[in-house]
Design brief:
By secondary structure, the chain is an alpha/beta fold. It has three domains: 36-45 and 64-122, Orthogonal Bundle (Recoverin, domain 1); 142-281 and 341-459, Phosphatidylinositol (PI) phosphodiesterase (TIM Barrel, Alpha-Beta Barrel), CATH 3.20.20; 477-605, Immunoglobulin-like (Sandwich), CATH 2.60.40.150. 26% of the residues lie in helices and 22% in strands. The strands form five sheets. Strands 7-6-5-8-9-10-11-12-13 form a nine-stranded mixed sheet. Helix 7 (236-250) links the parallel strand 8 and strand 9. Helix 3 (87-101) crosses helix 4 and helix 6 (207-217) packs parallel to helix 7 (236-250). The longest helix is centred in the middle third of the chain and has 18 residues, at 374-391. The chain is globular and about 75 Å long. The model is unreliable at 1-8, 53-60, 284-302 and 307-338 (pLDDT under 50).
Length: 606
């Protein structure tokens, strides 16, 4: 992309690009035309086009007919695999297309002509690439679902010095995130609770602000339950205060079970519009009874994280302090404060105290949540992959980023999903390819934040054997992807955004991201000097585990002298792709949907 600001003009169907303030380059604007496949589909089903109608075409190319409601039903059934569409639903689609394109003459039109049909296919809200509503069984226990999970949800930027705020929490909930993480610390006076990344320079935000924001925005994008995971660094008194806050702010929205522990997790469907809390049950460990050490200047310590353990010198100091008090009195005081807080914990959490293999032994009458860092997950999956799968069939496994990701970057989520881990905790405030994969996975199931795990991750054999992620499997199906064309950049970008001297040179890259055997990359040719690139290329992707595969799509603008410019991206779960010709909207680097940019593509499964 040219770095100097250049001038350009639009004149009589062409763009004029000025070079070196002396020369004009004129580029004609080519109107977007239906591809051959679109034209053929129209001719097959339109009345009067020599296809599925009266068999009489009024011109040589067979494209002068009209598609009415019955014909559109046939097209959606035969060509798009949408067998459940009724004539009334098809008529509503036709009416909407005509309303958008022919406002003045909408009452005189009885169906879609070729241009109308082509535009219908390009409307991503009328012809989306994946099912736009919840369609999976939501009555299974929570452990049967991948859950959209945030990490340090209150941070606005990096892990060391950014501000803490309720705003990232709100944005995450609006995007559909269902698990919000809050780190709780005493304030400077020890009388109230702040949310912050401990032992860093992050500025705190009061807990009450975060809780009220969760209450107000929890169900703005999905009715299914929000889980608040708490990393608790509080005294018993402050834990009781948290319980009081949560009870008063959430009211009837707050769910907690009658018993201390669950034999099986409830289902998302049974928890509609409910908020649940997950943390470690309170216990009388030394730090919680002696906040003195906690209140010391922590600026020279390492950032707090779920994998930290108390330092030896801290434990010794606390033991000395404890000797002056009665253990029995402390125990009684803590027990008096505990019940209200402990009772609100629905999902009991913990970290491995011994070996991970020992911690992952399944208990028959109790379910829980276990947290592992991304490195611990890698090590465990390398040595005990089937134990992880077996554990996640009934229990919840949460994976969090390693502590050195100070810039709030993320890790590869597929290893966790392949082993059944439900909560892949991500930093949602940045952007990058890993986060694009997370966005893609949770576009599934209507974007509700809960995606049913594939059946093979939940099955057990006669000898308690489970899915082996390391086992090589045969190809189950082949996905064929055809990239027809793209449109919308001219509307969303200035005409010199990509190149100061000519229209852009777009190409499309496609990636399959899944189990290692399925990973693949493809690339279209470069279409030079065209705001409406037409590639018309098809690619095949053989898949061994299509249930866990993601199709990542990225459009780039070729630049001979610099790094190729970004033109949009999306990521789609392969298992959710709708067959046929579809409109695929693109998103910016942060995952926000672009206003106009979209691709016309076709998906076929064989």
């Amino acid at each position: 992309m040219g770095k100097e600001k250049k001038t350009e003009s639009y004149d009589n169907g062409s763009y004029n690009y000025k070079m070196f303030k002396c020369f004009n380059r004129k580029f004609k604007i080519n109107e977007v035309q239906p591809t051959d496949d679109v034209r053929d589909a129209f001719c097959q089903f339109a009345v009067g086009s020599g296809g599925g109608g009266d068999g009489d075409s009024s011109d040589g190319d067979g494209s002068s007919g009209v598609i009415g409601a019955e014909q559109l039903c046939c097209f959606l059934d035969d060509h798009q695999g949408e067998s459940g569409t009724t004539v009334a639903e098809a008529q509503r689609l036709i009416d909407e297309v005509i309303r958008r394109r022919h406002h003045a003459t909408r009452f005189t039109r009885q169906g879609l002509d070729l241009d109308d049909f082509f535009n219908f296919l390009f409307y991503d809200d009328l012809n989306p690439p994946i099912t736009p509503h919840v369609h999976q069984d939501m009555t299974a226990p929570l452990s049967h679902y991948f859950i959209y999970t945030g990490h340090n949800s209150y941070l606005t930027g990096n892990q060391l010095s950014s501000d803490c705020s309720e705003v990232p929490v709100i944005k995450a909930l609006q995007r559909g995130v269902r698990v919000i993480e809050l780190d709780l610390w005493p304030n400077s006076t020890g009388t109230d609770i702040n949310v912050l990344h401990g032992r860093t320079l992050t500025t705190p935000v009061p807990l009450i602000k975060c809780l009220k924001s969760i209450r107000d925005y929890a169900f703005s994008s999905s009715p299914y339950p929000v889980i608040i995971t708490l990393e608790d660094h509080l005294t018993a008194d402050l834990q009781a205060k948290v319980a009081e806050m949560a009870t008063q702010i959430f009211g009837q929205m707050l769910y907690y079970p009658e018993s201390d522990s669950l034999e099986e997790f409830p289902s998302p469907a049974s928890l509609l519009h409910r908020i649940i809390i997950s943390t470690k049950p309170p216990k009388e460990y030394l730090e919680s009874r002696n906040p003195i050490v906690k209140q010391k200047d922590n600026s020279n310590a390492s950032p707090s994280s779920e994998d930290e353990t108390p330092r030896t010198e801290e434990i010794q100091t606390l033991e000395i302090l404890n000797q002056s008090d009665s253990d029995q009195e402390d125990e009684e005081a803590s027990e008096d404060q505990k019940p209200a807080y402990k009772r609100l914990i629905t999902i009991h959490a913990g970290k491995p105290k011994g070996t991970v293999k020992e911690e992952m032994k399944v208990v028959v009458d109790k379910v829980r949540r276990l947290s592992l860092s991304e490195q611990e997950l890698d090590r465990t999956c390398s040595s005990n992959s089937q134990d992880v799968v077996r554990f996640t069939q009934r229990n919840l496994l949460r994976i969090y980023p390693k502590g050195t990701r100070f810039n709030s970057s993320n890790y590869k989520p597929l290893i966790g999903w392949t082993h059944g881990a439900q909560m892949i905790a991500f930093n949602m405030q940045g952007y990058g390819k890993s986060l694009w994969l997370m966005h893609g996975m949770f576009r599934a199931n209507g974007g509700c934040g809960y995606v049913k795990k594939p059946n093979f991750l939940m099955k057990k054999g006669f000898h308690d054997e489970v899915f082996d992620p390391k086992k090589k499997l045969p190809v189950k199906e082949t996905l064929k992807v055809k990239v027809y064309m793209g449109d919308g950049w001219r509307l969303d970008f200035s005409h010199t955004h990509f190149d100061a001297y000519s229209p852009p040179d777009f190409y499309t890259k496609m990636f399959i991201v899944g189990v290692p055997a399925d990973n693949a990359k493809r690339k279209t040719k470069i279409i030079e000097d065209n705001w409406y690139p037409i590639w018309d290329e098809e690619f095949s992707f053989p898949l061994t585990v299509p249930e866990l595969a993601l199709l990542r799509i990225e459009v780039r603008e070729y630049d001979m002298s610099e790094k190729d410019d970004f033109g949009g991206q999306t990521c789609l779960p392969v298992s959710e792709l709708r067959p046929g010709i579809r409109s695929v909207p693109l998103y910016d680097k942060k995952g926000e949907k672009m206003k106009s940019v979209r691709l016309l593509m076709r998906f076929i499964f064989e």
